[in-house]
């Protein structure tokens, strides 16, 4: 039997990082088994669901590379089908019409509260001989009240609840709209979903949903309820912990493969492997290897993994990512040929950057028009001593025949030795004058990429300003 998984977010905001992990695990298990990964937008809450949120969720999944099979399904569009199932249950005597008034339900709540127990509908309409054909009523499931409902959960193991704990819950509201509990079951069945991988906050829902499956004589899916992500304090991950939507991490300069790798390792593992490619993840992933303990989200660990993927990323791809940021930052100060310089210098730039935001900032000096501004640290390096070194070395550089990194470094070493200086006393003023900063890739590599004319021009700018 083909495995069919699904990701079913509510479009009330961005794609949360915890939701992204749920989507990832569903995607990986479907691909691992040669199955299908489906997307359903649970947009029945019309007051809170927005087209913008739907777009944000879909864009987030696409950016992460979690492409779903077929078209995304709208739960709201399936409302007539949900109502049809409720009416079918009525016709089979497995559901009934409830005409209890709001006042009666409130009285039940107050009594339950006074007795210190959860509110459960007392079933007073369950066995009525006459039900209204018209008028206000809801449709309730005639739940099983004897025995237990048992779920053989792939992650949680065997979990059970006494059916006495499950009341005759509402399937169809008085306005004819379906409840979440009914809609989820009908949609999963109709979409052929047979493997439900989701957060363990849905485990209590699963017991009620089993009752609907059984009432309709439908095949139950396999359930895998995974622990939710927690913050460093051990509490459920939230904005308070700095948790962002997927687009927030993208805007912070993280790469999708780093996020996927990090989320994969939260609650699942493959020996001591930390860096796991998409291909390896698909080959190795199995839901039974997901732990029962809640994983803690560590932003520093994510940043570390992202730095690894920055070093491994294609230079042209990184340039495409950062170029809009560089262009926006420089504006009219953009130099001709700046893009090409950044691409040439990318190997040295990306090894020093933890994310694409840092990369864009550190790459600007390659693309900036002369004269380039100096930061405070660069100004300090170009004090009297630094300027004196630059003036002497400028004359040596003017006679250089081979403008490439190794000969330039050899010339600097020879000059430093002759002047009784450490190489850093030459390299640091050079770096300040050529990049406007005290940090950069290897300065002789930078000089080669900038070229003779640009390098000497920047040195002259610094010397004339001093």
Task: Put the structure in a nutshell.
With 466 residues, the chain is mainly α. It has helices at 17-32, 51-63, 79-91, 102-114, 180-190, 203-215, 246-251, 256-264, 278-284, 299-312, 315-330, 338-350, 356-367, 376-381, 384-398, 405-419, 424-435, 443-450, 452-465; strands at residues 4-7, 36-41, 73-74, 95-98, 138-141, 148-153, 157-162, 170-172, 195-199, 222-226. It is built from 19 helices and ten strands.
Structure description:
There is one protein chain. The protein has 466 residues and is mainly alpha-helical. The protein is 48% helix and 10% strand. It has 19 helices and 10 strands. The strands form 4 sheets. A 3-stranded parallel sheet has the order 1-2-3. It has a 3-stranded antiparallel sheet with strand order 4-5-8. α6 links the parallel β9 (195-199) and β10 (222-226). α15 (384-398) runs antiparallel to α19. It is elongated and about 105 Å long.
């Amino acid at each position: 039997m083909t495995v069919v998984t699904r990701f079913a977010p509510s479009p009330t905001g961005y794609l949360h990082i915890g939701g992204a992990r749920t989507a990832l695990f569903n995607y990986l298990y479907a691909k691992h088994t040669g199955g299908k990964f489906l997307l359903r937008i649970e947009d029945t809450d019309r007051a809170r669901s927005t087209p913008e949120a739907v777009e944000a969720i879909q864009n987030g999944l696409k950016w992460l590379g979690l492409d779903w099979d077929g078209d995304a399904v709208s739960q709201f569009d399936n409302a007539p089908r949900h109502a049809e199932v409720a009416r079918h249950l009525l016709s089979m005597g497995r559901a009934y019409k409830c005409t209890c008034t709001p006042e009666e339900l409130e009285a039940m709540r107050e009594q339950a509260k006074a007795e210190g127990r959860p509110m459960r509908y007392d079933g007073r309409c369950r066995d009525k001989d006459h039900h209204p054909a018209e008028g206000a009523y809801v449709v309730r499931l005639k739940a099983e009240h004897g025995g237990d409902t048992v779920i053989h959960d792939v992650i949680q193991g065997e979990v059970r609840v006494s059916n006495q704990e499950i009341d005759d819950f509402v399937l169809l509201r008085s306005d004819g709209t379906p409840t979440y509990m009914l809609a989820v079951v009908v949609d999963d069945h109709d979409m052929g979903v047979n493997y439900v991988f989701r957060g363990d906050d849905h485990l209590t829902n699963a017991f009620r949903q089993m009752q609907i499956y059984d009432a309709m004589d439908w095949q139950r899916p396999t359930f895998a309820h995974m622990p939710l992500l927690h913050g460093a304090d051990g509490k459920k991950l939230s904005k308070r912990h700095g948790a962002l939507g997927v687009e927030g991490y993208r805007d912070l300069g993280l790469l999708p493969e780093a996020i996927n790798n990090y989320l994969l390792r939260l609650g699942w593992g493959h020996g001591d492997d930390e860096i796991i490619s998409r291909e390896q993840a698909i080959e190795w992933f199995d839901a039974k290897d997901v732990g029962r303990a809640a994983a803690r989200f560590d932003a520093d660990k994510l940043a570390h993994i992202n730095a690894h993927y920055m070093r491994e990323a294609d230079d042209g791809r990184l340039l495409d990512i950062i170029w809009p940021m560089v262009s926006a930052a420089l504006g009219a100060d953009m130099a001709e040929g700046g893009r090409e310089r950044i691409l040439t210098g990318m190997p040295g730039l990306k090894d020093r950057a933890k994310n694409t935001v840092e990369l864009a900032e550190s790459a600007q000096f390659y693309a900036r028009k002369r004269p380039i501004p100096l930061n405070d640290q660069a100004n300090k390096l170009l004090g009297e001593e630094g300027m004196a070194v630059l003036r002497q070395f400028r004359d040596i550089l003017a006679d250089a025949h081979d403008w490439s990194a190794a000969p330039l470094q050899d010339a600097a070493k020879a000059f430093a030795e002759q002047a009784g200086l450490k190489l850093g006393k030459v390299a640091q003023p050079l770096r300040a004058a050529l990049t406007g900063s005290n940090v950069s890739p290897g300065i002789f590599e930078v000089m080669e990429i900038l070229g003779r004319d640009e390098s000497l021009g920047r040195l002259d700018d610094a010397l004339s300003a001093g």
